[in-house]
Amino acid sequence: MDRLNKILTRILVFLAAIVFLTGIIFSILRSKSKTKDALQDSEKIFLNQAEFKSFSSQKSKAFTKIGKLRAATKPGKNGKTKIVLITPYIEYSDDHTFYEELDRNLKKMREIILNYFSEQTAEELAKKNEEKINSELLEKLNSILILQKIQRLYFTDFLIL
Known about the structure:
By secondary structure, this protein is of the alpha+beta class. The protein has helices spanning 2-43, 96-104, 106-118, 122-127, 130-142, and strands spanning 60-63, 69-72, 83-93, 152-160. Helices cover 52% and strands 17% of the residues. The longest helix has 42 residues, at 2-43. It has two domains: 1-44; 49-160, 2-Layer Sandwich (Tetrahydropterin Synthase, Chain A), CATH 3.30.479.30.
């Protein structure tokens, strides 16, 4: 009986070791997969150079994390507000540290853009050309940045509804 207990104990220890090692191997493989997925996701925030043909240099990137925004304008002469739908993209020099600064200030940048459109009536926005809106927004966005300045601002969507 003593011999049988020793054999069963060794078998249980052996099985426990196999389960433990299998868990470790599975965990390592899973973390590598997550790291690979995270890297692929981080690459999705950059647009291809072909999508912005007007980029001035090959060392430019597009920061696309701002996403689609909706802002209500200030009430116009008729007392009604309009909705502005915009999807801004920021061109910046290919610098990882500056990208991190943009990422840290993402909430502030969204707030600046939303406030810009909510402080104006739809009529005022319609009178301005895109260049004027871009320059005013660039000035406001660049005022919160320390390391560098944003090179250009693009809108893939710009609708006043």
